[in-house]
Amino acid sequence: MRTPVIAGNWKMHKTAAEALSFVDEVKRTTLPADVEAVLCAPYLALPALAEATQGTDIGIGAQNVHWEEQGAYTGEVSVPMLKAAGVQYVIIGHSERRAYFAETDETVNKKTRAALDGGLTPIVCVGETLAEREADKTKEVVQTQVKAACAGLSSAEMKRTIIAYEPVWAIGTGKASTAADAEEVCAFIRKTVADLYDQQVANEVRIQYGGSVKPENIRSFMAEPNIDGALVGGAALKADSFIQLVQAASAGE
Ligand SMILES: O=C(CO)COP(=O)(O)O
């Protein structure tokens, strides 16, 4: 069975010191062993977080990465740099990066390729805007994004890739998708992977839902067969809320 992944995306929140006090609080509880818990922090907090979580089951992720290993790319950070800092995951192609920082399906693919080559687990974000949903284009948009992001990946690489379905209209709005609607799209993403690879690969790929997930609604998403966890923004900024989200994703709940 697929291990659920609950990943907090802190976006542009928390200094290194604030990140450390969050982790101190999380470390005071025992998190369920059947859930992968990940914190995706701003670059500057990553080395401290990686050190503070050594010997725990908490994974650490970045929120972006460049596809080259090094070079004249002012302001960028590479996969080997993240690896050296103790990072294991990286969010790629978040809708905020697509909208504000000109990320395209092509750069998302290059970053996914680089992450996998360098031994990081990519969390690739896909999702439609409100206008696209209203124009009944959700599946078309998501399929195009998944196909582009995963172009050229081997079956083994695809299995290591996490896909996060994040409808743009649900992010930070307090208006989460219904669990049924999210399930429909996540099932469609799994079918897209099955068509691109085979059913076995599709069965192993983890697909998260993201967009206004909170402790109060996470159980409804986790109850769906094709939703394997969540990518969480606002509700992952407080340790007690993050702990509740991870606990709610456990089969023991
Ligand atoms: O963008 C998100 C996670 O990547 C979702 O953010 P919110 O949980 O704040 O809606």
From TrEMBL:
Protein task: Involved in the gluconeogenesis. Catalyzes stereospecifically the conversion of dihydroxyacetone phosphate (DHAP) to D-glyceraldehyde-3-phosphate (G3P).
Catalytic activity: D-glyceraldehyde 3-phosphate = dihydroxyacetone phosphate
GO molecular function: triose-phosphate isomerase activity
Binding, substrate: N9, W10, K11, G172, S212, G233, G234
Predominant cellular place of this UniProt entry's protein: cytoplasm
Active-site residues, Swiss-Prot/TrEMBL: H94 (electrophile), E166 (proton acceptor)
Name of the featured protein: Triosephosphate isomerase
Keyword Cytoplasm: yes
